[in-house]
Design a protein that fits this description.
This protein is α/β, with parallel strands linked by helices. It contains 15 helices and ten strands. It is globular. Bound molecules: zinc ion. Zinc ion (ZN) binds next to loops.
Amino acid sequence: MFVGKTNIHRNSLRKLVGSDNITILTFHRIIPEGENYFIPPMALSTKNFRNLLQLIDRHFSYISLDEAVLKLREGVQLPKRSISLTFDDGYRDNFTVVLDILNKYGMKATFFIPVNPIEKQENYWWDILYQVGTNDAKSFAYFAHQHQVLPKSLISLIHDIREKNNGVRGEILRECVRSLNMTAYIKREQFVKELRQITLNSQSQHLLLNWDEVKEILKKGHEIGSHTLSHRPLTQLSEAEARKEISESKAILSKKIGQQQVMGFSYPRGDWNQKIADMVVEGGYSYAVTTRYGSNNRNANLYALARRNISDYQGIRAYMPTVMYWLEFSGIFDKVLAARRSE
Ligand SMILES: [Zn+2]
């Protein structure tokens, strides 16, 4: 699915000045001062988020993603150096931390919401894993061993996890997430089900937005997109299941948020193929975003838009954030970063 009629002269001129590029940034969690998250590629500090918005405000043209796609479809030229902000996964800090900062700069972002975790107020499997790993390492190790979902070397590290400091604990559990991400989801789900059972008996922190907060985000003028029903990788599901994840999530979100349109779709873990993209088209969405690293020009496939994941993972940012972002958005590092970030 491609957009835009070709006017060769105008098009090549635009390419030359790079004015038709749209850079879409991906965020997951924005972490308050003094806190950290055990999956660094999913977390950006509040300080760096503020710095980044200030940079965008000064040197780039901000446009919301729904609006940018409408313009691309109509063949209207986007402002020079256009940037859109997107948030995946529906974490509560998107409401408690992000909204005020966005408001300060008058920027509207797009929030891709996973329906079931919000509806059930059920934390993601990786957060459950962290909770049980730090509080009940014995049960964690027992079930990991029973379901044979983790390498023995990693399970033995879990046994002694209480003696480790916070940083090392986080690294061990992140390694578990990495390993489980490569396991077929059905096998992983069985293990996670056991861990979930353990958390039911304990006070667990609600990490995700609730519907009232989603509505409030919308009320502030931001956009809501779909991040499926269950946040499972779509190419691993049956055709019927994948279709349901795509169309039912749109129907439920539309009902929840009223008149507003749900235009955008975000593939969980960036997992898609042509068949899945076709279902997104048939589902009535106007565009879909992936995790492919890069910017998009006016000929971009609107159902496979590239983005740039922004986190504190690139440690040097802590020292010279604005310069790094500036260079990064220019596309200078794309080849190097694409390899590093495809993990
Ligand atoms: Zn996600």
